[in-house]
Write a structure and sequence with these properties.
Layout (H helix, E strand, L loop, with lengths): L7 E8 L9 E10 L9 E6 L16 E3 L2 E3 L2 E5 L2 E6 L6 E7 L2 E8 L4 E6 L3 E6 L7 E7 L4 E3 L5 E8 L1 E8 L9 E8 L7 E4 L2
Parallel strand pairs: 6-12
Antiparallel strand pairs: 1-2, 1-17, 2-14, 3-13, 3-15, 4-5, 7-10, 8-9, 11-12, 15-16
Protein name: Methylamine utilization protein
Keywords: Signal
InterPro entries: Cupredoxin (IPR008972)
Length: 203
């Protein structure tokens, strides 16, 4: 399966500090668009503060990727380092799962409808998934070690609150992003009232 490669632009905007947030934290709104200004959906955005504590955390969404209609659903999933991901089979046919990615190399044998298999992901990075029976099936798991991460919506926007003020690294990943490992990183300064626009042009 071939993907068109689009140069992407990352636009990072800060929102004013709300009274309900802890002192020294901010809300960050990130929008991802392509070179034509079209929003890019399902791009993974990670914000890693320089003062990251390394504490364990969980995301509010379920760590699960189903197999339905001969596709991985969702096609991309963001999970915390050390998470165990469930793979329920909702199809009438059997599926297997494999990955040769550096972050996780494994193979799950064939299993049938309404059955579930699980796999743990102890290392950060991108895990590309496939099915030995259905070559067109592709899925991606992005394993992160920061709680300030998520995927862009249909408007190309990812918003997160409670990000510590100060220096941080923003990492953008998308399977069609034309850069090494399909990701790009840049340094930013997060403040309680961040109004400056940060733009990164990618090759």
């Amino acid at each position: 399966m071939k993907f068109l490669l689009f140069p992407l632009v990352l636009v990072c905007l800060g929102l004013p500090l709300a009274t309900s947030w802890a002192a020294g934290n901010s809300a960050v709104r990130i929008q991802v668009v392509d070179e034509n200004g079209v929003p890019v959906r399902d791009a993974v955005v990670e914000i890693t503060p320089a003062s990251s504590s390394g504490n364990e955390f969980r995301f509010p969404w379920r760590a699960a990727m189903a197999q339905k209609d001969l596709a991985f659903t969702p096609g991309t999933l963001v999970v915390a380092k050390g998470s165990s991901v469930a793979f329920p089979n909702l199809d009438r046919v059997r599926h297997s799962i494999y990955s040769f990615s550096k972050a996780a190399r494994f193979e799950i044998d064939l299993y049938g409808r309404d059955q579930t298999r699980s796999q743990s992901f102890p290392a950060t990075g991108t895990v590309s998934l496939g099915c030995n029976i259905h070559d067109m099936m592709r899925g991606y798991i992005r394993v992160v070690d920061t709680p300030y991460a998520g995927m862009t919506d249909h408007n190309g926007i990812m918003s997160v609150a409670g990000v510590p003020n100060g220096r941080a690294t923003v990492t953008l990943w998308h399977p069609r992003l034309r850069s090494p490992a399909n990701e790009s990183s840049s340094s930013i300064t997060i403040a309680g009232s961040l109004s400056k626009k940060y733009t990164v042009k990618l090759k």
